Amino acid sequence: MSSTAAPAPAAASSGSFWESIIDIFYQPSEVFRRRLNTSVWPPMLFDAIAIGIIVFATFNTLQPVFDAEFARQAAKTMAKNPQMTQELMDKSRTLGEAFTKWFAGPGTLLGVFVLGVVAWLLAQLVGAKQTFHAAMLVTAYAYVPRVLGTLVNGVEGLLMDPAKLTSVQSISISAARFLDPDKSNPLLLALLTRVDLFAIWVTVLLAIGLYVTGRVTKGRAVVFGILIWVVGSLPALWKGYTAM
Q1: DSSP 3-state helix, strand, coil percentages of the chain (rounded to 5)?
Q2: In this structure, how many other beta carbons lie within 10 angstroms of the beta carbon of residue 190?
Q3: 202-241 as b/e, with b when 16 or more CB fall inside 10 Å?
Q4: Is 225 part of any domain?
């Protein structure tokens, strides 16, 4: 692998925003180069609005998943806290489902921002000369495959046998899809959940974006990609560890 850093992006036409949304799937480097000096808001809002609409529209098709996850969590919570009543759990469920249905869009916006901050900080560790704006722009476009992933989940909920919708992992495109969440080691389940097509896709796009906009070598971009995947896995791994 060449150790040559990517040249500084040359000034070029930014092209159409919608063209960039399509191009990010098959020529991401060009998207990052030509959109570098444009506003971060169009792709961020696209991610948030598209995911919000898809979640709202497909919410009922995924009800078996929510039911299974709630039942699993409720059993654990009530076992640890005998004072927790079914009435309180039902109220918690109502609030949780409402939040998921109505706030998926704003939650996505916040998630993209946090991921952008983490990406920018990790970029500094590998010696990148990437501006905060460039990090946020790369993150916003790199997150676009998550829109496709959300749509895939909704379609799976519509087409799959409800009896097989037993967990979030059952509709994921990850290695954890093939494990029984009630019998598997929680830490292993959490780790395999991160071996997910769309999580890896986003990670690869972030690394490509850093190579293009941060003037680092391909080797450093790969190290960055590994770091951000590991850091992104920590919350899930901690949750899995505490569930053991």
Answers
A1: 75, 0, 25
A2: 23
A3: bbbbbbbbbbbbbbbbbebbbbbbebbbeebbeebbeebe
A4: yes
Rg of the chain, C-alpha, whole Å: 20
Rounded Cα distance between 178 and 66, Å, is: 18
57 in a structural domain: yes
Instruction: Evaluate whether residue 88 is within a structural domain.
Output: yes
Number of domains within the chain? 1
Give the residue carrying structure tokens 């150790």.
3
Type of residue numbered 132? F
Identify the band that residue 8 occupies on the pLDDT scale cut at 50, 70 and 90.
low
Looking at the domain assignment, is residue 24 inside a domain?
yes
Q: What is the pLDDT of residues 195-239, one digit of tens each?
A: 999 999 999 999 999 999 999 999 999 999 999 999 999 999 998
The parent domain of residue 94 ranges over: 17-242
| CA–CA separation, 79 and 74 (whole Å) | 8
Residue type, 10: A
Phi-psi category of 203—alpha, beta or left, where left has phi over 0 and alpha has psi -120 to 50?
alpha
**Model-level pTM?**
0.91
Q: What is the per-residue pLDDT across 52-100, written as a single tens digit (0 to 9) for each?
A: 999 999 999 999 999 898 888 888 877 788 777 778 888 888 898 888 9
Structure tokens at 201: 């896709």
Percentage of the chain with pLDDT > 70? 95
